[in-house]
Write a structure and sequence with these properties.
CATH class of the largest domain in chain A: Alpha Beta
Largest sheet of chain B: 10 strands, mixed
CATH topology of the largest domain in chain A: Isopropylmalate Dehydrogenase
Structural class of chain A: alpha/beta
Number of strands of chain A: 12
Strand content of chain A: 15-25%
Strand order of the largest sheet of chain B: 2-1-3-12-11-4-5-10-8-9
Largest interface: A-B, 63 and 57 residues
Number of strands of chain B: 12
CATH architecture of the largest domain in chain A: 3-Layer(aba) Sandwich
Structural class of chain B: alpha/beta
CATH architecture of the largest domain in chain B: 3-Layer(aba) Sandwich
Distance between the termini of chain B: 19 Å
CATH superfamily of the largest domain in chain A: Isopropylmalate Dehydrogenase
CATH topology of the largest domain in chain B: Isopropylmalate Dehydrogenase
Strand content of chain B: 15-25%
Shape of chain B: globular
Largest sheet of chain A: 10 strands, mixed
Number of helices of chain B: 11
Mean pLDDT of chain A: 86
Number of helices of chain A: 13
Radius of gyration of chain A: 22 Å
Order of helices and strands of chain B: HEHEHEHEEEEHEHEHEHEEHHH
Low-confidence stretches of chain A: 16-34
Oligomer: heterodimer
Radius of gyration of chain B: 21 Å
């Protein structure tokens, strides 16, 4: 019936108003088409019971954007409820109750935690990841329709080893004026991150996995990482595998990013590559991501640069909630609520493509609340 | 024409005096060690400055010729001493670079190096490593600016990356602790960090740059990058007219790809420097257009072209000499021959901007010699 009424509706609306009708038509058209989506996900009885999710607002713009997510979840009547816990970057360690809550709920949504530079407290983000053994960090960088950037056709997933490598935190002063830092690479961790990367590519129909390394200089350390990747690659003959040195990789990302698909990297290079890829595809304000381990998952803004924002953004309430909204969509899929996730993503993408409600980092001037309201209005 | 006759007379005389102190003949590659050539400088009265030239392998000799032609046409008072990489390992340097070559650079204090292909095998050090260790090259300077006329996605890049070249993550100290566990040491010393920070601020001052940014990851690697930052801060206090800021590296990567105009001079430790300088090279069009200069102890400057030796187009007159030409301009600036440097620099930019003579990698059809002639004409 929708197929027949659509052209009639279009005609009716065309004859009435001017350009605002195009928007209306587009939205009607889209929603008509989407309601024809066949439902293939068959839940088990009782899957619809509300799930508890730990919520850590964090510092800076964190409370602003997590508030945005809470509002949208309410509006969608999604079967999740949040347990809030306050954690701030200047605490010495993450409170035990927060960790217990995450262990119980298995899923957490987190704003950014500021890390003081140059001494004092060790990063709480890193602490959380090590405690809960969240060994894979995933950032999905893609071009959003309607958001012009210098590069097109970007769709990169960066999977980064999250527990060892350069971030082992093992440093000491040998003699005054000489400091050593240990970079540790183990076969166990390299193997499991490689397995996760290939499994992700397999389950999401991705065609190519690229390993990023610097084995021409760090022959043993990155050599071990590469060996593990190569071993796992032989078990997935349908997925192409290649290797690229990290400095060449950054150069290629800036000139030809369409050649990359899934990238698997050790800890430090992953940080750089993920932030570069996020930068070329639209900025850290829009890239979703998460950290996942065998038992738990924490979802947060994808690229870590600037995810605490700065003072001005907090005061003017102009932080970009898109990244955390898309991450919460990833979380909904992880919790096996795919249709809620789809609705949320469609609404967010529509708001971005309409260009009316955009925060400052995307070239607009709206506040966080305006974007949230627009997303809620676009939910169907 | 008079200069050509003079050159021939001098050459015939020096042929009899080929110093045996020059290289043990590297015959198999086909390069003949050439006698010292003098460029007649009938116009200028300054004493010619001697500089070592390593043409290198592959396309190296062609682009080195380019540089010599352009310098001739611009009447730059430089006298080249050419040295080639041998095919026998010199026991004094444990590599294919001979002791004489290194002595020549130490004596002349300036050099220009083309691309060198390190032969695969054991029992010798890599050529770049030899140069770095023997000459104490502690800072790698790469000026990255958009070339007008060659459009990339980024048109307003104008920054300089200065990278510490001796320690950091590339110390090469790795070992296997137990089976399946490998450790690699990253070393940061106060001395090396101070040295490179001093050079960075000195460079900023002499080249009229306003801002120096130190790139680090001190929120995670607190002691090592913390020491690097402390040294940079100390040096910054001595140069109050230059703005100093510190940027975390992931933030820096993101800002570079979104808005490269935010940066002016970047100073960083070894690994980050490697990645960021290649990223910046990618922003302006690749390694074929990027100049680079290595600064060593005692004011030694070795400018080099960082691209590969491209053996597949060697000898076909297709190579792009821009990187080596721009590196030679950097070398001239180091020698404070600013007017000549500006002259050649402008000629190169004009040739590329005109678009008529472009080599194949820039999308044109000219040969190396055509491009060189165009640059000489534009002087």
């Amino acid at each position: 019936m929708a197929r027949r009424t659509l052209p009639i509706l279009k005609q009716l609306l065309h004859s009435s108003r001017g350009s605002s009708s195009d928007h209306l038509i587009a939205r009607l058209g889209l929603s008509c088409l989407e309601s024809k989506r066949t439902v293939t996900y068959m839940p088990r009885p009782g899957d619809g019971a509300p799930r508890a999710v730990t919520l850590v607002p964090g510092d800076g713009i964190g409370p602003l954007v997590t508030g945005a997510v809470e509002q949208v979840m309410e509006a969608m009547h999604a079967p999740v409820y949040f347990e809030r816990y306050e954690v701030h970057g200047d605490m010495t360690k993450v409170p035990q109750e927060v960790i217990d809550s995450i262990r119980k709920n298995k899923v957490c949504l987190k704003g950014g935690l500021a890390t003081p530079v140059g001494g004092g407290v060790s990063s709480l983000n890193v602490q959380l990841r090590k405690e809960l053994d969240l060994y894979a960090s995933l950032v999905n960088c893609f071009n959003l329709p309607g958001l012009p950037t210098r590069h097109e056709n970007v769709d990169i997933v960066v999977i980064r080893e999250n527990t060892e490598g350069e971030y082992s935190g093992l440093e000491h002063e040998v003699v005054p004026g000489v400091v050593e830092s240990l970079k540790v690479i183990t076969k166990f961790c390299s193997e499991r991150i490689a397995k996760y990367a290939f499994e992700y590519a397999y389950l999401n129909n991705r065609k190519k996995v690229t390993a990023v390394h610097k084995a021409n200089i760090m022959k043993l350390a990155d050599g071990l990482f590469l060996e593990s990747c190569r071993e796992v690659a032989t078990k997935y003959p349908g997925i192409k595998y290649n290797e690229i040195i990290v400095d060449n990789c950054c150069m290629q990302l800036v000139s030809k990013p369409e050649q990359f698909d899934v990238m698997v990297t050790p800890n430090l290079y992953g940080n750089l590559v993920a932030n570069t890829a996020a930068g070329i595809a639209g900025g850290t304000g829009v890239m979703p991501g998460g950290n996942v381990g065998a038992d738990h998952a924490i979802f947060e803004q994808g690229a870590s640069a600037g995810n605490v924002g700065n003072e001005k953004l907090v005061q003017q309430k102009k932080a970009n909630p898109v990244a955390l909204l898309l991450s919460s969509a990833m979380m909904l899929r992880h919790l096996q609520f795919p249709s809620f996730a789809d609705r949320l993503e469609t609404a967010v993408k529509r708001v971005i493509s309409e260009e009316k409600y955009r925060t400052k980092d995307l070239g607009g001037g709206s506040t966080t609340q305006e974007v949230v309201d627009a997303v809620i209005a676009n939910l169907d | 024409m008079a200069s050509q006759i003079l050159r021939r007379v001098l050459r015939s005389r020096s042929v009899e005096q080929i110093s045996t102190a020059l290289i043990e003949s590297p015959n198999s590659i086909g390069f003949i060690s050439s006698p010292v050539r003098t460029i007649s400088t009938s116009a200028s009265s300054t004493q010619p400055i001697r500089a070592t030239l390593f043409p290198g392998d592959g396309i190296g000799p062609e682009i080195a010729d380019s540089v010599k032609q352009v310098f001739n046409a611009a009447e730059v008072p430089i006298e080249w001493e050419e040295h080639f990489v041998g095919d026998k390992v010199d026991p004094r340097t444990e590599s294919f670079l001979t002791w004489e070559s290194l002595e020549s650079v130490r004596r002349n204090r300036v050099g220009l190096k083309g691309p060198m292909a390190t032969p695969i095998g054991k029992g010798h050090r890599s050529l770049n490593l030899t140069l770095r260790k023997e000459l104490g090259l502690y800072a790698n300077v790469r000026p990255c600016y958009s070339l007008p006329g060659y459009r990339t996605r980024y048109d307003d890049v104008n920054l300089v990356t200065i990278r510490e070249n001796t320690e950091g993550e590339y110390s090469g100290l790795e070992h296997q602790v137990v089976r399946g566990v490998v450790e690699s040491l990253k070393i940061i010393t106060r001395q090396a960090s101070l040295r490179v920070a001093e050079y960075a601020f000195h460079y900023a001052k002499t080249h009229g740059r306003q801002k120096v940014s130190a790139i680090h990851k001190a929120n995670i690697m607190r002691k090592t990058d913390g020491l690097f930052l402390k040294c940079c801060r100390e040096v910054a206090e001595k140069y109050p007219e230059i703005t100093y800021e510190e940027v975390i590296i992931d933030n820096c990567c993101m800002m570079l790809v979104k808005n490269p105009t935010l940066f002016d001079v970047l100073v960083m430790p070894n690994l980050y420097g490697d990645i960021i300088s290649d990223l910046c090279a990618g922003l302006i069009g690749g390694l074929g257009l990027t100049p680079s200069c290595n600064i060593g102890e005692g004011g030694i400057a070795l400018a080099e072209a960082v691209h590969g030796s491209a053996p597949d187009i060697a000898g076909k007159n297709l190579a792009n000499p821009t990187a080596l030409l721009l590196s030679s301009v950097a070398m001239l600036r180091h020698l404070e021959l600013h007017d000549k440097a500006d002259q050649i620099h402008d000629a190169i930019l004009k040739t590329i901007a005109d678009g008529k003579y472009r080599t194949v990698d820039l999308g044109g059809t000219s040969s190396t010699t055509d491009f060189t002639k165009a640059v000489c004409n534009n002087l």
